[in-house]
């Protein structure tokens, strides 16, 4: 990993965000399949958080980077309830909560933790209607948010993934829907936008963008 290069790329990404009208937009550096050094590079370059997709990979990296030396960790991959226990104390923000069973498991772990703390989550919503996309149906969002809040979870926002075909009009519509839902649900964080659609996401109100390849280059198959 080349730290000066990563720093340059982060600066370029921030410039893209500013030119799209973004103010105070956080960068979640997506470090899946990159080594633990990517966590350090992201922190040195001034990113706000790192994003991981796989439980075992996350556990391995957490053993290599001391908790005091790392950025907040966002889990952004598909959540399996049987994996939550193993990563609960590592994850700072759960971005891909999309069904009642996941909420129930997070509530259980939060209630049973030894040290009092917050459990922050973003509800993932499928705003494109694609069957292969993660996220709850928009009609289910309020019920899931209510369940999470009643269980003591800190629901701070919503997350979505743009359409697979990257059609600009569809992308904008998907992001615009998420912003409207956030307003209706009374949450402020909007995690939307990746390398290919950062500008549209920022124009539509994103507060967090999830970017990997634009910062670290082509993603290796495994760490």
Describe what you observe in this structure.
The chain has 223 residues and is an alpha/beta fold. The protein has a single domain, classed as Alpha-Beta Barrel (TIM Barrel), CATH 3.20.20.10. The chain has helices at residues 3-19, 37-44, 55-64, 81-87, 100-112, 141-150, 168-185, 198-203, 213-216, and strands at residues 26-30, 49-52, 73-75, 93-97, 120-124, 154-159, 189-191, 208-211. An eight-stranded parallel β-sheet has the order 7-6-5-4-3-2-1-8.
* Cα-atom radius of gyration: 17 Å
User: How many structural domains in the coordinates?
Assistant: 1
Shape, please? globular
CATH architecture: Alpha-Beta Barrel
Number of helices: 9
Structural class: alpha/beta
* Sheet with the most strands, sense and barrel status: 8 strands, parallel
- Specify the helix fraction band: 40-55%
Strand order of the largest sheet: 7-6-5-4-3-2-1-8
Low-confidence stretches: none
Terminal-residue CA separation:
12 Å
Summed over residues and divided by their number, the pLDDT gives a mean of 95
How many beta-strand elements? 8
């Amino acid at each position: 990993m080349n730290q000066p290069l990563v720093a340059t790329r982060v600066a370029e990404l921030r410039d893209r965000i500013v030119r799209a009208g973004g103010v105070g937009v956080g960068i979640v550096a997506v470090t899946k399949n990159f080594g633990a050094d990517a966590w350090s590079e992201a922190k040195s370059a001034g990113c706000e958080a790192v994003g991981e997709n796989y439980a075992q990979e996350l556990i391995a990296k957490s053993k290599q980077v001391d908790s005091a030396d790392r950025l907040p960790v966002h889990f952004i991959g598909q959540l399996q309830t049987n994996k939550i226990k193993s990563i609960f104390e590592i994850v700072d923000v759960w971005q891909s909560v999309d069904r009642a069973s996941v909420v129930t498991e997070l509530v259980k772990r939060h209630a049973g933790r030894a040290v009092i703390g917050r459990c922050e989550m973003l509800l993932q919503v499928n705003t494109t209607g694609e069957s292969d996309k993660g996220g709850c149906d928009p009609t289910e969002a309020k019920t899931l948010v209510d369940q999470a809040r009643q269980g003591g979870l800190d629901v701070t926002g919503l997350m979505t993934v743009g359409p697979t075909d990257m059609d600009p009009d569809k992308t904008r519509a998907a992001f615009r829907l998420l912003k409207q839902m956030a307003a209706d649900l009374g949450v402020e964080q909007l995690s939307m936008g990746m390398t290919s659609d950062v500008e549209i996401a920022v124009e539509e109100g994103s507060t967090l963008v999830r970017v990997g390849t634009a910062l670290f280059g082509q993603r290796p198959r495994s760490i």
